[in-house]
Amino acid sequence: MNQERKAELKKQANEVRKGIVTAVHSAKSGHPGGSLSAADILTYLYFEEMNIDPKEPKKADRDRLVLSKGHIAPALYSVLSHRGYFPTSDLTTLRHTGSYLQGHPDMKHIPGVDMSSGSLGQGLSAAVGMALNAKLDGSDYRVYAVCGDGEIQEGQIWEASMFAASRNLDNLTVIVDNNNLQIDGSIDQVCSPYPIDEKFAAFGFHVINIDGHNFDEIAAAFDEAKATKGKPTAIIAKTTKGKGVSFMENQCGWHGKAPNDEEFEQALKDLEVTE
């Protein structure tokens, strides 16, 4: 990836992060930590990788994304709004009574959302079904599923993975947001899923390990996933929970808590400084 494009994506991801903290602050509830850790991956997918059109969000040949860790809806909403699916000003209505931007993704009311999600462990099964449908229909769209590293403690994740590999769904890419923290603490202390890469490999996936905040590595991983034939791909993205906001980084307490007014101002100041 050339330096100019990488700089553009970094800047865009930073705007996405500002949208995340703005939405959660306005809602006075929500999940900022995991939203911030996944911001770079989602920015790359929607601004560089996926075949999508905000003017035609239901076009038949579009690539699909399932946010299996649906509680990081603020990240998805911020990306969708900056990509042009709906006004960024609507982010301040997150979780408000009457707002279409609910606490978890809703495919019936939010433009650009391909699958309602929120019950952890279930989204990957939906993504597998979409990928299988593409194969049966002879369609060439790709399917992406974003899972949490705490979420993969759910057994349904592995049932879906076993099925995906058995059907050679090479049009499916699973991204594990490996920020190492869930609501109760570090994932290895709560119920360790490590080694994550070896587990997906054992279930028949092509596995790629990356720094989930490095756009060169992100780009190379998705290129490799597209080039992989005969099996699905799992990208294990090592990330930092709360990435970009100094007092939120690597703090599990910010899994599901909104910043107050003072913290919100500090977060925006932090996000004025880009790497």
Characterization of the model:
There is one protein chain. Helices cover 42% and strands 12% of the residues. It is globular, with a radius of gyration of 17 Å. It starts with a helix and ends in a 5-residue tail after the last helix. The protein is of the alpha/beta class and 275 residues long. The model has no long low-confidence stretch (mean pLDDT 97).
Give the secondary structure arrangement, pairings included.
Elements: H1 3-27, H2 32-37, H3 39-49, E1 64-67, H4 73-83, H5 123-137, E2 143-148, H6 155-166, E3 172-178, E4 181-182, E5 185-186, H7 187-191, H8 196-202, E6 206-211, H9 215-227, E7 233-238, H10 261-270
Parallel strand pairs: 1-2, 2-3, 3-7, 6-7
Antiparallel strand pairs: 4-5
Helix pairs in contact: 1-3, 1-4, 1-10, 3-4, 3-9, 5-6
Question: Into which percentage range does the β-strand content fall?
Answer: 5-15%
Shape, per Cα inertia axes: globular
Radius of gyration computed on alpha carbons: 17 Å
**Biggest beta sheet summary:** 5 strands, parallel
| SSE string | HHHEHHEHEEEHHEHEH
Distance between the termini: 17 Å
| Strand order in the largest sheet | 1-2-3-7-6
Helix content: 40-55%
Poorly predicted residue ranges: none
The residue-averaged pLDDT reads 97
Strand count: 7
Number of helices: 10
Secondary-structure content class: alpha/beta
